[in-house]
Amino acid sequence: MSETAKSRAAALAHLRSRDFAKGDPIPLPLTMASIFHTPGEEAGFDQYGRYDNPTWRAVEHALGHLEDAHCLAFPSGMGAISSVLFALLKSGDRVLLPADGYHATRALAERFLKPFGVACDTRPTPTFLDGGFDGYRLVFAESPSNPRLDICDIAAVANAVHAQGALLVVDNTTMTPYGQRPLDLGADIVVSADTKAVNGHSDVLFGHVASRNTDIVAKVRDWREMAGGIPGPFEAWLVHRGLETLEVRFDRMCSSAEKIAKRLKNHHAVGALRFPGLDGDPSHNLARAQMERFGFLISFELASEQKAEDFIDNCALMQSATSFGGVHTSAERRSKRGDAVPSGFVRLSIGCEPVEELWQAIEASLDRLDG
Ligand SMILES: *Cc1c(COP(=O)(O)O)cnc(C)c1O
C-alpha cells in the first residue's frame, strides 16, 4: 500500500472527531428516521429519509475519504451499478461491458437498458483495449474481472475512452479503495459492491458510487432520490463499522492469498490457477503496475464438478457460499451460477483466519481428493 493509502487508513478512525462537541459519542450513532423536525423554510437540514440521513452521510464521508472523491451509498452493489447506468445513459447511446465480469451487470443491460433503446456490447477483459471505443457513451470495466481474475490496463483504457468523449466506469469490488485506485488511474466513476470486502462480515448488502466529477454525482444523486433506491440507515451503520477494520482485514486477506496461491499452484490436484500476484500469471506485470495489492481472490480448476464440491465441503476452514470478501474463507464452484467456466472451476475467497492453519486445512482437503 502506498504512503497516501496508509495515511488515509490512519485518518479514517478519527474522521468524525473534527465535529465533536463535549459529550458526543465517539462511535457513530445510528439515526433511524424517515422524518425530521422541519419548521419554516426547507434549507440546510435533513427533511425526509429518501433525500438524506445522517448515518448515510457518515458512511459516504468515510468512503469518500478513502476514494478521495464524492461518494453516494446504495442498498446493494447492483443498486449502485444500475443508478450509474440509468442516470447517465439515454435512448440512442451505446455502452460497452466486460464479457467476463459480474453476470448481473450484463443481464441488467440486456433485459432493461436494451428495451429503453441503449445498445449494449461486450468484450473480454484481457483484450478490452482492442477495437477502441468509438461510438460509446459509456464504457464499463471490471478489473480484476470476477470470477476469472483477468485485468485490463485501466489508465490506457481511460485515455482511449476519453479520446472518444466517453465516460469510464470501473467496478472495483474485488479490490476495495485500498487495493486499487481507478479514479487515480483516470476512471470517471468507481462502483463497488460493499456487500463484499468493504463491509466484510457477510451480514449486509450495500454499494457505493464514487466520482470526482460533481455533475455526475449530482445526476446519480438525483436518480437515487427519484427512483428511491436508498440504503437503510442500519445497513449504513454496519458498513461504517466494517470500514473501520477494512485496512486490517484486507491486508491479512491479501497477504494470506499471496502465500496460499503459491502453494496451491504447486499442488498436483490444482490446475489453471489464476492469481494476479503470482509471477508468471498473465495478469502479473500489469497488476504490479496498477494495483496496490493483488487481492484475496484465487481461481483454479479441479478435475471435475464432484472434486470441486468435495474440496469445498471437506475443508474445515472453508464455507461453501456465493459472494466473497468476508472474514470467513469461502469458495464456490462458479459454473453453478452460470459463469462460462469449466465445471470444476473454483473461486476461492481468502478470509482472515491465521494463514498457516488455513493452509493446512486447504491442503488436507485437496489431499483427500486422491483417496
Ligand atoms: C457482488 C458483485 C456485484 C453486485 O453486488 P450486490 O451487492 O450483490 O448487488 C457487482 N459487481 C461485482 C464485481 C460483484 O462481485
Automatic annotation (TrEMBL):
Tell me the cofactors it needs.
pyridoxal 5'-phosphate
Keyword Aminoacyl-tRNA synthetase among UniProt keywords = no
Spell out the Pfam families in the cross-references. Cys_Met_Meta_PP
Keywords (alphabetical) are: Lyase, Pyridoxal phosphate
Any idea of its EC number? 4.4.1.1
Top-level lineage group: Bacteria
Q: Which GO terms describe its molecular function?
A: lyase activity
Q: Which InterPro entries match?
A: Cys/Met-Metab_PyrdxlP-dep_enz, PyrdxlP-dep_Trfase, PyrdxlP-dep_Trfase_major, PyrdxlP-dep_Trfase_small
The cross-references to PANTHER family, in alphabetical order and at most eight, read: CYSTATHIONINE GAMMA-LYASE-RELATED, TRANS-SULFURATION ENZYME FAMILY MEMBER
Q: What family is it from?
A: Belongs to the trans-sulfuration enzymes family.
Q: What is this protein called?
A: Cystathionine gamma-lyase
Protein's organism: Mesorhizobium abyssinicae
Q: What is the lineage of its organism?
A: Bacteria, Pseudomonadati, Pseudomonadota, Alphaproteobacteria, Hyphomicrobiales
